[in-house]
Amino acid sequence: MLQKSSQSILLVLVSVIALFASHSDSFPLSTHKRWIIDEATGHRVKLTCVNWATHLQPMLAEGLDKQPLEHIVKHVVDQKFTCVRLTWATHMFTRYANQSVSYTLDSLDLQEVKENINKNNPFILKMNHVQAYEAVVDELGKQGVMVLIDNHVSHPNWCCNDDDDNGFFGDRHFNAKEWLQGLHLIAKHFHGKSEVVAIDLRNELHGPRQNERDWYNYVHQGAKTIHKANPDVLVLISGLNYDTDFTFLKKKPLKLNLNNKLVYESHLYSWSGVGTVKMGEVWTAQPVNRICAQTLQGVEERSGFLNEGNHQAPLFFTEFGLDVTAGGDDIGNRFLTCFMSYIVGRDLDWGLWALQGSYYLREGKLAVEESFGLLDANFQQIKYQELPQKFQLLQKKIQDPTSKLPKSYIMFHPQSGQCVQAKNSGLEHGNCEQSSLWDHAGDGAPIMLKGKSTCLKAVGDGLAPTLSSDCKSDQPSSWKFVSMSHLHLATLDQQGQLLCLDKESSNSTKIVTNKCICIEDDSECLDNPQSQWFTFATTNLA
């Protein structure tokens, strides 16, 4: 019994050490073309993050009144995030660095919050704001989580609106000189902390003062300021229009030498590119294939191109998310299914908004619940129960520039977050750790099981496709992507009927072929076709 217990303890210790080593021992990070890599080995390090707000008026990481700090961080680890994008406000370091957390809570009349922090994290009340921020960073590092420091705003407040005077250089609450001072202070302060792997210049530049000339000027100054004070960290650079637009770099590339530390960051939500939150309703008011195609084309034109060409660099989607209350809203789920096909298809680094389930104080209101929050309002349980299955392939590194293995494809079903597996009985979707590997030479070619002489063959409407050795006939073993979204895999059956791969039902793992749903650009066709969406994710690690 004693020997068995000792072995169990040893296994736990080995697992903890391995987890910590896999994250923290990668420091410092660097870049190689479109990849973020371990500077020492050249191996890819994939950043899969969750955002944790610290930039609002209390200037304190949300939730410390609800749960002990280590418990909140454990949620991050348990959900397999490799990093946290920890927000901060410039004034935290330039004006309120020495002000105690206790004093700030008193000044905001947050007595109940203060009492509950005293119960769950009493040491925080004895700290100033810089010390409290560092305590969160330290706990993340202790549990093997990397940290991206995000300059979210200057004046501590909720972000963002076009008229918040907090959005662009020269705004009333965005003094460029003070911003540079803040970047210097925080970069210098965390120099040598291996868990801090990246610092960004600014979250979501926005508002009527935006212009390209000032962007180039201050991006150069800000990036150089961070790099000089802390040459080990990656420097993340955001675009214009709420961090959605880098199109101006096509005409005038950013000539900035940071010794392979430059990374671009972008954001995307259901309403991005179309205006306000309410404009996100296009996802249910218009054909989903059309809206998805337009969304991803817009992403490619505004930021996706940064991964390619002579000036290619890593592109990191540091914010996206959806309302996860009661399993998520229809608009958000449609958007997320579309965007996941893009993230997985390129194996990009990303950050989910948000960890926090509620706020101490947001826009003048107490204890506001975060509908996009991974955690519940008490920071006790995971509110987004679908995350482990939905995000399993997003969290997995499937490409590495140092790999010598040949490329193959994982067939991914973005609506479920699962991967296609070849079984004796046909195709199923399931855990991506057991996904089958495939070869597909392009539209009109067969889908071949990797390393085998068998291919996917349609049998008929409503029936499961089979694995056949007859792979030379034009149909029904010839497959192509159809629809504007380029996410329907279709073939002709023996009767000449166009059929698409489809998830059989919500409570089945079986994959069948059915009549294709809304593949023409028909404004009257508003059925949701996403059960029929599949994409090939390139991998060279299997």
UniProtKB/TrEMBL annotation:
Which segments does the entry list as coiled coil?
none
- The residues forming the signal peptide are 1-26
Keywords carried by this UniProt record: Glycosidase, Hydrolase, Signal
The similarity comment for this entry is: Belongs to the glycosyl hydrolase 5 (cellulase A) family.
Question: What are the protein's GO molecular function terms?
Answer: hydrolase activity, hydrolyzing O-glycosyl compounds
This chain's protein is named Endoglucanase-like
| Occurrences of domain Glycoside hydrolase family (ranges) | 68-356
The record's listing under Pfam families reads: Cellulase (PF00150)
Biological processes per GO annotation: polysaccharide catabolic process
